[in-house]
Amino acid sequence: MLGYIIRRILAVIPVMLIVAIFVFLMLRLSPGDPAAILAGDSATAAQIEKIRTELGLNDPLHIQFITWMGQLLQGDLGTSLISKTGVVDMIANRINPTINLALMTIIISVLLAVPMGVAAAWRHRTWVDYLVMSFSVLGFSIPVFVIGYIFMAIFALGLGWFPVQGYRAPTEDFFGFLLRAILPSLTLATIYVALIARMTRASMLEVLGEDYIRTARAKGVKENSVLFRHALRNAAVPIMTIIGIGFALLIGGVVVTESVFNIPGIGRLTVDAILARDYPVIQAIILLTAGIYVLINLLIDLSYTLLDPRIRY
Amino acid sequence: MAKTAQPVSASQWFLGALSLPRKWRVGPGPIIAAIVLTVIVLSAIFAPYYVPFDPMHMESTKRLQPPGGEYILGTDPFGRDMFSRVVTGGRISLLIGIGAAVISVFFGLLIGLVAGFFRMADAIIMRIMDSLMSIPAILLAIALVSLSGASVGSVIIAITIPEIPRVVRLVRSVVLSAREEPYVEAATALGSSMPKILTKHLMPNTMAPLIVQGTYICASAILIEAILSFLGAGVSTETPTWGNIMAEGRDYFQINPGLIFWPGLMLSLCILSINLIGDTARDLLDPRLKKREA
Fold it and tell me: Residue A151: is it exposed, middle or buried by C-beta count within 10 angstroms (0-12/13-18/19+)?
């Protein structure tokens, strides 16, 4: 067991190393002169040269990589080309809204999707099943920002239940935070719910055909208990896996949702960085999200033994 | 009791002769999806021949006109006809979807065959693919576009790169199970060359899952194009795409929701149809998959 945990943790290193190499090479191997691309169309030769020295682009490639990795390992993600402040500080200033939004989305998604998937599997091939599956296909087909605008048009502009845009920190005004975070979270949750409900249904359908479910029903266990204690627990591993894999989808959605609802988080930082071609910031955000993704999936992998005692390594 | 043949009426016989073989029969959903998709594709292809206005022509006196009258869907913030723009926008969006699907399937197949067949290459290739998959597709695409400039070609490439690992995984898993089959062993024993085993014996196994995966990639590429455009990292607004029409309309959403609604509707209908057709193709081409997922 301990051996497995150590091996699994060590396996993270090559993955993150390759991500870092990839991010490093992306700028250097992009067609054209990276310094000129970053400087923009109206830059003078002197400005381009300045960016080149700032980024150390005049050194040989392997020296650049070693310097860059060295800084990275010390937690230095570089300096923004625009604001000249440290990228780490910029991210730290913006990360709270994003974390709050992501947490709320995950909670909403799981609370909605798991019962939906269970119901669809329980009432397989009835209208309940078809409704859930239709929602799931629909959730994959509508762009997240269109969903955002539809919600905004109905619930904020039409019914006036929620403020249209904006963000408030939960520490200063929890109710205000909830009020402003509900629409963005629901928007983000749509695709996540579609994904999790689909997997829950598939996994539950498999489990509900097992002998021990029939046994449980035969000895008179209540249907609720059959579904949630006997079946769902056994169906949990694939569901957890998809929640982890879906996290990449969630990050992509955060970038869009934050700009629809005007939330000052990492997503907005990303969009601003793209528009300004602030490559060090984009680079840092990619590394950060890939790191979080790998970490979450590591934790989920390790949690399998807790969820299902039959799994032994 | 003697078996008596059921009398068959002429109309029943006619319907029977028309219908597809049993295994090709599908419900009404996929057929409607196919019709919707055909209409969207044809309307995009022939858009230049029937649109009432030049989709790029700006009429500064007719900004943000409401729908109805001369302009069926109204006009955008620059006084351009929304209807003409929405149908014309489908051309580039569909081109990007199909382009991304074809290119990622091609390279995914190539890399996947190598990974599945050569043990040595497998470990390295799959580590690289795992790493690529750990970067959220949208962020990777954004970074690639922001570096290479926003042309249709660079958007296709930016969408393709995050999709390739998924194709590689699929092809590799098919090849890994197929290479253990007796016919591959027989071919090896008979002295077939390695390229021949790869192309004649292993590649055909990957075709059905690749067609299905290709449709899903096409749908997701259209979606990602829209998101890239929406974030300002997409195709330049000189060429309308569903994504950049919505991007230009977002600031005026409260005045005229149609600026986002109509292109959004076309886009969603298109993706929905492609996804439904993909699901149907999966069920028809690979009954094992259906069993596993149902």
Answer: buried
| A178 and A245 assigned to the same domain | yes
* Overall number of domains in chain A: 2
Interface confidence, given as ipTM, is 0.84
> Are B136 and A138 within 8 A, CB to CB?
no
Sort out which chain A residues have CB atoms less than 8 A from B267's CB and list them. Answer: 143, 146
Residue B19 vs residue A174, higher pLDDT: A174
**Residue A133 and residue A219 share a domain:** yes
Q: Does B140 touch chain A (CB under 8 A)?
A: yes
Q: Could you tell me the pTM of the whole model? A: 0.85
HEC sequence for B86-130: HHHHHHHHHHHHHHHHHHHHHHHHHHHHHHHHCHHHHHHHHHHHH
Task: Give the distance from residue B121's alpha carbon to the nearest chain A alpha carbon, in angstroms.
Answer: 16
Residue of B nearest to A296 (CA): B134
Indicate if A176 and A295 belong to the same structural domain.
Answer: yes
Counting residues of chain A whose pLDDT is more than 90, the rounded percentage is 24
Per-residue confidence (pLDDT) for residue B172, from 0 to 100 = 92
If DSSP codes are grouped into helix, strand and coil, which group holds residue B239?
coil
- CA A76/CA A87 separation, integer angstroms: 8
Residue A81 within a domain: no
CA-wise closest residue to B143 among A34, A174, A223: A34
Give chain B's domains with CATH numbers. 27-44+73-285 (1.10.3720.10)
Percent of chain B past pLDDT 90, that is, above it, reads: 29
Tell me, yes or no, whether A313 lies in a domain: no
Q: In chain A, whose CA is at the least distance from the CA of B293? A: A202
A125 and A9 assigned to the same domain: no
Q: Which of A271-280, B57-66, B238-247 has the highest mean pLDDT?
A: B238-247
